[in-house]
Amino acid sequence: MQKWIRTCIERLFFYTPHISQAKLTETFENKTILITGATFGIGEACVRKLAQIPCQLILVARTEEKLISLKNELESPHCKIHYIVADLYDISSSELIYQQVQQLQLKIDCLIHNAGKSIQRSIWKSIDRPQDIDRTIHINYLNPAHLTRLFLNDLKTTSNQQHQSQILVVSTINAKLFAPPLWANYQASKSAFAEWIKAIQPELKIHNINAALIYLPLVRTRMILPTAQYASMPAMLPTKAADAILACAAHNKRQWQPWWLSIAQLCCIVFATPIQFFYRNLLKRNM
Ligand SMILES: NC(=O)c1ccc[n+]([C@@H]2O[C@H](COP(=O)([O-])OP(=O)(O)OC[C@H]3O[C@@H](n4cnc5c(N)ncnc54)[C@H](OP(=O)(O)O)[C@@H]3O)[C@@H](O)[C@H]2O)c1
Question: Which domain CATH number covers 21?
């Protein structure tokens, strides 16, 4: 696709709210923010923005060298950076992260659930791969749900009328659309956590905790590299995705999604049968 056409499509379809430095400071100044998946892509973009303001960051991911290099590069007298090496495929990791935060004697004001795993694989190729189901459900649903549960009392005590505590969930537009074949594990695990968050949103709100779901379209990160057809498709920049996530906290929003997602949702309902037919034919052709 021509570069200028791609740029126009990206501007039109991937518009995100701008969040000023002043608003970012007003929202996160002196707050303690834990972010999972902080080493690359969207998580790293959030970290780089938050490190510009006076706050404490707790970065969680597996790649220790990258965590150390981010700390060395971004830590400053006004922004203290801690890191925790954890593998969110492992179901015990949420408890370990919680214990390490307790040892640091920190109380969390904002929890950003960003780490995620996507897999595109046919169910027929997954017969001997139980890990595809386990890993996606652990990182995309169970560990974020347990982390939320564990930090809930902290979030309740750090919130007040002026500043609500925040739980920011990086989700995907797929969670609102027709489930596509080959993506069953990603779709199911992301949708499960989105539903879980939606169900607890009112319970949290009455204690001044805002939980927001950010339904992102395609974002140009290393996550999309294994899917060849995404290489030339329009995609959002990680910095723009970070703006959408942080703006939800700044404005206490319940969700952010691209402006066209509701139209796409309606199309998925109206055209459910032709969409099934289209997918079946596509799969047969590629067999
Ligand atoms: N890219 C997209 O098109 C897109 C679209 C919609 C939603 N999203 C969502 O956006 C979020 C961030 O994705 P991204 O695109 O920024 O991907 P990315 O560039 O691959 O980054 C993923 C982050 O998650 C961490 N991570 C991966 N597996 C982990 C594990 N087992 N334990 C702990 N941390 C782990 C990675 O760090 P380590 O490797 O160091 O552990 C990395 O920091 C995900 O939740 C994804 O579902 C992405």
Answer: 3.40.50.720
Report how far apart, in Å, the C-alpha atoms of 54 and of each of 24, 45, 139 are.
Answer: 10, 17, 29
CA 106 vs. chain centroid, Å, equals: 23
| Average per-residue pLDDT for the chain | 95
75 lines ligand 1 (CB under 6 A): no
Whether the per-residue pLDDT at 18 is higher than 90: the answer is no
Tell me the pLDDT band of 183, cut-offs 50, 70 and 90: very high
Position 1 scores a pLDDT of 62
**Ligand 1 pocket, 40 CB below 6 A?**
yes
pLDDT digits (tens, 9 = 90+) for 43-59: 999 999 999 999 999 99
Task: For residue range 69-116, list pLDDT tens digits in order.
Answer: 999 999 999 999 999 999 999 999 999 999 999 999 999 999 999 999
Strand positions, DSSP E, 180-278: 209-216, 255-256
In angstroms, how far is CA 45 from the centroid of its own chain? 12
Q: What would the two tokens of residue 284 be? A: 């047969």
CA separation (Å) from 111 to 77, 167, 172, 222? 22, 5, 18, 23
What's the DSSP call for residue 233?
S
CB 156 within 8 A of CB 204: no
Verify whether residue 230 is a known catalytic residue.
no
Range of the domain at 123: 3-285
Domain count, the chain: 1
Can you tell me which atom of ligand 1 is nearest the CA of 40?
A: 43
Index of the ligand 1 atom closest to the CA of residue 45: 16
